[in-house]
Design a protein that fits this description.
Layout lengths: L3 E5 L1 H8 L4 E5 L5 H12 L6 E5 L7 H7 L2 E4 L7 H16 L4 E2 L18 H11 L7 E9 L5 H8 L9 H6 L10 E6 L3 E2 H5 L2 H7 L4 H25 L1 E2 L1 H11 L4 E3 H17 L3 E2 L1 H6 L4 H9 L4 E5 L2 E5 L5 H10 L1 H15 L4 H14 L9 H17 L3 E2 L2 E2 L4 H8 L2 H14 L7 E2 H17 L11 H13 L3 E6 L5 E6 L6 H11 L27
Parallel strand pairs: 1-7, 2-5, 2-6, 3-4, 3-5, 9-11
Antiparallel strand pairs: 6-7, 6-8, 10-13, 12-13, 14-15, 16-18, 17-18
Length: about 550
């Protein structure tokens, strides 16, 4: 199914596992993640990991096979079952004490959006609590990045993002998926980041956490430590990630000012973003390195996969991503979006006249709003990256002293990378302005947002169809609840139904909606001349080989 398997950093893992038990903490984008990791360990004569798997994977007859291959199945929640929680803790203690390699997915489930999800801290908390009790001298957490040329589940993810129900795992569903075996999905890149010593991360806190059991202040400190550790793991997974040709190509197509783009402009933009990745020290896949010259191979790969189309006129080739395929391309764009996060926010601010004195505050405002979307860097790191981005934009001719060239390719495409999120958050704010004291059910709220997004798309007020995502709407709802604009309340039998009610800060929502509306206003894309990067002339459109 795959053209190849590229493994990096395994030597670090091998050296660590000689002395201490390890816990693999990979990103989760496909059901193939755990199969590939176990295959790598088996092929390298390493004991395959014991994998914490959701109980949904225990379906007949595959559950027995998965268990035999290292999976152990756990419930999604242990609430109201202290015996289950105790047995699980004892099993975890046994695995750590005996030195078994373990694996769990800190995101909880597979990412439908392509970017890393906010961490679910239950499993990490259980591991820290057991380790603090002194079962081993040290334990190493190993962040793992897994990157695919394409994934098997892309159509299923698209349907879920559009509001469809997730198909339950079953033997019948597995049989229906046999067709995937006849397709090719590119190369898989697996990168093991530097293992994190849990003993070193805890430092002097380990003894305090062990001795001060049930002390509310210490328990609060421990929760804060686990949360910071969870986000550190996510950042290190992102830092270890590679960037591929599919990801860069998808980013250019979705960030373009119009729904279609001429081939010459596509190549200029794709090169500009690739050079920015190289400046940031990102590892490029072999396919991206091959494609830097003209991106023929990448475009053919996407065209053969029916994700893009192209048209011709007397001026050359026009590349086009059909609206129904943009959600799939968005998955691949999001694989690398963390590398472009700060540059995109800087480009957005510069194109809207934000001064240098206001720039840091403007960037941090967006980062704070999008905290449910991205594993945010530390505040000090943000300052350094803003300064580095400004220096790079100046070097490339996007900034000339105090003058900003708003039509420079880096600023035009950099700005467009986060447009879908701004449009989605604007629609959420507009929808919530209609909240009354009775509120909406959570499901009805999401449905209203999706209908509103479609309506505004027909009016030309939203231009990125991939923004009509149930996951992004849910993230925005959670963030707005944190900010006090709404309150999320559980009702019904067992708290199954969630209701969205006005929050204490609902009066401030109109101002947020206006700011989000203003952030979407850009010049008419038909009048935007995309300036090439410094020293790089815009190439004439050339025919793309069939």
């Amino acid at each position: 199914m795959f053209s190849g398997l590229d493994v990096r950093g395994l030597d670090r893992v091998i050296e660590t596992v000689k002395q201490h038990p390890i816990v693999l903490v990979p990103c989760h984008r496909s059901h193939f993640d755990y199969l590939i990791l176990s295959y790598i360990f088996h092929e390298n004569a390493l004991s395959p990991p014991h994998i914490a798997a959701g109980i949904n994977m225990a379906f007949w007859p595959m559950g027995a096979f998965f268990r035999g291959a290292g999976a152990y199945f756990i419930r999604r929640t242990f609430e109201g079952n202290p015996l289950y929680k105790t047995v699980f803790r004892k099993y975890l203690e046994y695995l750590i004490r005996e030195g078994y390699t373990q694996e769990f997915f800190i995101e909880g489930g597979r990412s439908r959006t392509g970017k890393i999800l906010t961490p679910k801290l239950g499993m990490l908390s259980a591991i820290v609590n057991v380790f603090v009790d002194g079962v081993r001298r040290d334990l190493y957490l190993v962040p793992v990045s897994i990157h695919y040329g394409r994934i098997v589940e892309e159509e299923a993810y698209k349907q879920e993002l559009l509001g469809g129900q997730k198909e339950r795992e079953s033997f019948g569903a597995l049989l229906k998926a046999r067709s995937v075996l006849r397709q090719k999905y590119g190369t898989v890149y697996v990168t093991f980041a530097e293992p994190i010593s849990l003993d070193a991360a805890l430092g002097e806190r380990r003894e305090r956490f062990q001795q001060a059991i049930a002390d509310p202040a210490v328990e609060d400190e421990k929760r804060h430590f686990i949360q910071k550790l969870g986000f550190r793991i996510l950042r290190e997974v992102n830092d270890a990630a590679v960037s591929g040709a599919t990801s860069v190509s998808s980013t250019v197509l979705l960030a373009a000012p119009a729904a279609a783009i001429r081939y010459g402009e596509f190549v200029v933009a794709a090169r500009a973003l690739t050079e920015l990745l190289l400046h940031k020290g990102v590892t490029l896949t072999a396919s991206l390195q091959r494609n830097i010259e003209n991106f023929y191979e990448s475009l053919n790969f996407l065209q053969n996969g029916k994700l893009i189309e192209w048209m011709k006129d007397r001026d050359g080739d026009i590349i086009y991503a059909p609206a129904e395929k943009r959600m799939i391309l968005d998955f691949y764009k999001n694989n690398s979006i963390h590398f472009f996060l700060i540059p995109s926010l800087v480009a957005h601010a510069l194109r809207r006249g934000v001064t240098r004195a206001q720039l840091r505050e403007a960037v941090w405002w967006w980062l704070d709003l999008f905290r449910w979307e991205f594993a945010l860097p530390e505040r000090e790191a943000v300052v350094g990256e803003i300064d580095d981005t400004l220096a790079y934009f100046t070097e490339r001719g996007a900034i000339d002293g105090e003058r900003v060239h708003a039509d420079h390719v880096l600023l035009v495409f950099g700005d467009g990378i986060l447009d879908s999120f701004r449009e989605a958050y604007w629609i959420v704010a507009k929808t919530l302005l209609d909240l009354n004291v009775d509120g909406f059910t959570y499901k009805a709220a999401i449905a209203r947002m999706q209908k509103s997004f479609t309506m505004h798309q027909l009016l030309g007020q939203t231009r990125r169809p991939e923004g009509n995502s149930a996951v992004t709407f849910a993230n925005a709802l959670n963030r707005f609840a944190e900010l006090g604009y709404v309150t999320l309340v559980r009702r019904g039998r067992g708290g199954r139904d969630q209701v969205v009610l006005p929050g204490n800060a609902i009066a401030g929502l109109a101002a947020l909606e206006r700011r989000l509306a203003e952030s979407r206003r850009v010049e008419d894309p038909t009048r935007t001349a995309i300036a090439p990067g410094a020293g790089e002339p815009l190439r004439s459109p050339t025919a793309i080989p069939a």
